Amino acid sequence: MTFILYLINGVSLGGIYAIIALGYTMVYGIAKMLNFAHGDIIMVGAYVCFFAAASFGIPPVIGVLLAACVCAALGVIIEAFAYKPLRQAASLAVLITAIGVSYLLQNAALLLWKSNPRVFTSIVGTGAVRIWGLSITYVTITTILACIAIMICLTVFTGKTKMGKAMRACAEDKNAASLMGINVNVTISLTFAIGSALAAVAGALLCSAYPTLSPTTGSMPGIKAFTAAVFGGIGSVPGAMLGGVLLGIIEIFAKAYISTQLSDAIVFAVLIVVLLVKPAGLLGRQVHEKV
Amino acid sequence: MKRLSRTAKTDIFTYSLVTVGFIAAQLTQGAGLMSSSLKGQLVPICAYIVMAVSLNLTVGILGELSLGHAGFMSIGAFAGAVAAAVLEPIIPVPEIRLAAAMIIGAVFAGIAGILIGVPVLRLKGDYLAIVTLAFGEIVLNLINCLYVGVDSKGLRISMLTSAEALRLNPDGRVIINGPVGASGITKLSSFTAGFLLILITLFIVQNLVNSRAGRAILAVRDNRISAESVGISVTKHKMIAFVISAVLAGAAGVLFALNINTIVPTKFNFNTSILVLVFVVLGGLGNIWGSIIAAAVLTVLPEALRGFNNYRMLAYAIVLILVMLLTNSAFIKSTLGRPRLKRGAKT
Q1: CA B215 to CA B234: how far, in whole Å?
Q2: Domain that holds residue A26
Q3: What is the pTM assigned to this prediction?
Q4: CA B291 to CA B301: how far, in whole Å?
Q5: Distance, CA of A192 to CA of A174 (rounded, Å)
Q6: A276: which chain B residues are within 8 Å (Cβ-Cβ)?
Q7: How far is the C-alpha of A189 from the C-alpha of A78, rounded, in Å?
Q8: How far apart, in whole angstroms, are the C-alpha atoms of residue A69 and residue A66?
Q9: For residue A269, which residues of chain B lie inside 8 Å, CB to CB?
Q10: Predicted ipTM?
Q11: Which domain holds residue B238?
Q12: pLDDT along chain B (347 residues), means of 10
């Protein structure tokens, strides 16, 4: 019985990682860059959500939507000012700029909202439902449902809509896409907006499950989600989902059955082993070099 | 006299840069012009310079992105702290003890480099980066659970428990105490030792780059397939660069750890790896003296920005972004493109 409970908790934590990882993977797929500032956007989203509820008494659902809008705008602004000028530059230069943006967000948050941790009130309340003798918190259920909903929406969006197809075309070949009349700049901005909005949702869910909020809240989940994106095969949307969920399950199981202290080491060790067997991640496309 | 080649000129320039920097620092220190906070920064600057040069070997010269370089520094730091404590009764001269601790720290980091290098170097690009990141996190996590003590019977090591589980004799003392880290370290590092370590690092890295193996490493970076086709062993040369880089990072870790009283495992987290990577990229990939200047300037910069008070890390972030935008932006490159082309044509 406890095994199933751990599994559900693992899927829930994994769901949060998966939502964050989607942002990483979409941005990587289209802009071919590792957006290190993504983890800090989670933190900004959580803070917006926190203040919406604590200072203005806005209902949690609207608070999350507001956070998603703020973060989407933030993502677009960051892309326009920091990443767009470097589109032709070496990938390492973009990476360092992303790190700079990450520092900027963290330190701006430190100045605006101070370093003392805030206690985040869960967006769905703290209760739990009992199913077959298992007590599952509302947060867990909401996270799993949100994760499924996001997955379906994204699959439909990238598969069926014009904008989604444009996104895939840009990920494949930017020049060809622009020759076909796709506005590459708008498409990239849209990708950043979607990824950042998802990060805000993930931030609200994360802080509902683990209710302390500080300017560095986003960095560790950010690193883990980045790992999850690579685990599933970076650039692949289903891969990010799968990688995130698996990573969450491994982490919870490692904590429950092996050692709480070593759980991070175990998660990363599994990642290394998986990458050795499948060097492009679980669902990644292996690109063969042509000589 | 034979005319010096361009690489030899660059090498000599690098050595003189470090020497002039050392003499200038010693003079200002002697004249009492240096602030005490900057004085305290001298050894960390040396350690970060060694870190930056060694990471440049992996990222700039081998061309593989590593995000876990602080892991090697961490291994070196804690191995060095233990070695220094154990060797205290055996080697009374502090300078020799420091050297011995550095060698031990470097060897441990080198072993870790081999262990992680074998699997890691089969991967490419971002996947390699993520595995080095994972390695750094694993090291951090393991050292967080590591307890080491020493008593009259010798060294005692325990994982995952507490300092009590070491069951030390009354004369013993705990060296590494899990998440609290190593405390009560005798200060052995000095600015001169740091300067010597930088010179040794430069000697190793620059001679490696100009050797047969170094040219092979550059060939692997520039085009793996054609390097392989002319008979260069890709794995072997990647390993050479990666392990040397790890060894030097380990030595830098010892220098860093033996300079302060207490060192915690979280000091060497992902942010430290990133910090060193920033030095390397800002200094220019593959450019050794660039790494040195970037490491020195960026370590001092937060101090220099003290006038901004609470805003200094924010200012640091903005400076970092602006420098990257100014040096890499396509627009600025095209405006400054002409003089650069001319310079390129001359050489």
Answers
A1: 12
A2: 12-226
A3: 0.84
A4: 15
A5: 16
A6: 119, 122-123
A7: 10
A8: 5
A9: 134, 138
A10: 0.81
A11: 6-142+185-261+270-346
A12: 73 86 84 78 90 92 88 93 85 86 93 88 77 89 85 74 68 78 82 91 91 91 89 90 94 91 87 86 84 88 72 78 79 55 40
